[in-house]
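ugh ok so i messed up the first submission bc i forgot one of the chains. this is the corrected input, ALL of the components this time, i swear. 627 residues overall. if the numbers dont match what u have on ur side tell me asap before i send this to the collaborators (the ones from the other lab, u know who)
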Amino acid sequence: MRLVDTVQISFKTVLSYRIRSFLIVLAMALGVAAVVALTALGDGARNYVINQFSSIGTNLLVVLPGRAETSGAFLGAVLGQTPRDLTLKDAQLIGRLPQVRRYAPLNVGEAELSAANRLRTVTVLGSNAHLIPIRHMVLAQGSFLAHGTESNAQIVLGAKIAREFFPRTQAIGQRVRLGDSRFLVSGVLMSQGETMGYDTDEIVIVPINHAQVMFNTTSLFRILIEAKNHSEIESAKQAILATVKQSHDEEEDITVITQDAILSTFDRILQALTLAVAGIAAISLIVAGILVMNVMLVAVSQRTTEIGLLKAIGASSADVRRLFFAEAVLLSLAGAILGFSLGQFGSLMLRLTFPQLPAWPPAWASMAGITVALITGILASMLPASKAAKLDAVNALGKK
Amino acid sequence: MIRLTAITRTFHMGDQAVYALNNINLQIASGEYISIMGPSGSGKSTLLNILGLLDKPDRGRYELDEKLVTDLSEIEQAQIRRERIGFVFQSFHLVPRLTAAENIELPLTLSGMPSEQRQIRVEQALQAFELKERAQHRPAELSGGQRQRVAIARATIMQPSVILADEPTGNLDHQIGAEVMTLLEDLHHRGTTLIVVTHDRELGARAHRQIGMRDGKILTDQANATG
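and heres the new structure output, hopefully the right one now
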């Protein structure tokens, strides 16, 4: 019997048992669709987090005081305290390292901002001119600590704050009071919305020395560092650790976090999550496979006389086996294709519903979903097909 | 040319062995018209199944056209069933999902013949058995006589040398049954060996050679004087 005829006859059979075929195809399709849509969701979440992390800077390293280690005798790290503060001097030493393109020391606090008869509490970042490019923030207007004005009492306002305080007038050039000091508005940030949980539209930026005076501190909250290029991130980290250790009496009491390391950690976690979700969805495919087996077994007993007849008119056992096998493969294939389309449609709906979530199903997941569907379908049809092939023609024909 | 030598077929019912066929010896020449008669349980259907290679004897030799077929492989036996033997059943055994034309086409499809050649042969068969108008109907939409005509068309489409008919008129009324027998006898007139199993005496009497069976043995084997 020729392959094309086998497929054609099986196809007719599939079509003639409409409801039965539809239900099997649906079960298969839902399994594949679950794999495709859920991995799209998982991968979308992964890409979302990675995009968020990438948007806070490029080749970024963050130095924080204290050592984030749970082992060792250094108690200060556990309590969040450290005998030696991170200082501006440390920041300057780090700035001289050859691997470092630029650095921004950072102090964070809260203070009252008042101007034009308005008053509100704002988050204050104290830093230098590099903070804005390192953190990928953009000035909509003006400048911050432009060359030659490094020691001026300048302030940059977040977009929302500028709107609130100066709804009708130009913010730049206005005088504002922050805490007990006066500042001249030199720039306004472009509205960027929320990244990594805090809103750059509602902050103000002042020079680091003014911030330290305002908050009465000499220690830094963080130092943000941008490495010269991606390959120098690791050596920059080592150099920073060595430099600060030297200036801190040979005690390694800082922690350097690289954006890369965080990124790859999140990447791994979310990848694992995606895989887990895909695995759970794949179980529904196995269930669908068992359904195919069940239905094919029923089909064999339903069509017993027909199998007997096929043998009487000259079908070999192999022909009979191939007919049932082709039927199961057709059903699984239809299920896989329908499921893939449903999954793609589901992902599209996800992307339309949550535009910030890049929910594209990864190619490997779609391939795996379809392949698993086909393999389970094929495996599930083997037993019924061989049962059909082994049927004794005389007994089969004798059945009514 | 069929030669059965010492064919025995036993079934087991509980711990008792029942001889369906007990040491059968039979020779059938090409082109004969034979009826096999006997009460139910006499072994006549088993004999037909063995002749059609659907069943295997426990002992004995079966030669078809000078070739020993008892020892052939399953695939070779399937090929012989396909090419040399045509079956006609009491309950027609048409595939309900396929149209009349597709049912007739089935043996050709199984043989691997290309579709264009199949269509020509099916067309001829539809013509010959006056089924042209019914070609696209499914078995459920056909009368009993039409169904059996489709079954006979299917049995003969491969131009077999032997037609085995098991109670071919059992599910038909008298007049339609007679028409079906005429069709089968036409095939015999064109040279096909025709073997009919029946317990209808009148039907059996039409054959040129009548074999009577009882308890797995051939009791009578006589040529019909009128045949």
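quick check: Residues 38 and 213 of chain B are 5 Å apart (CA to CA). that seems consistent at least. The domain at 33-49+82-223 of chain B is CATH 3.40.50.300 (Rossmann fold).
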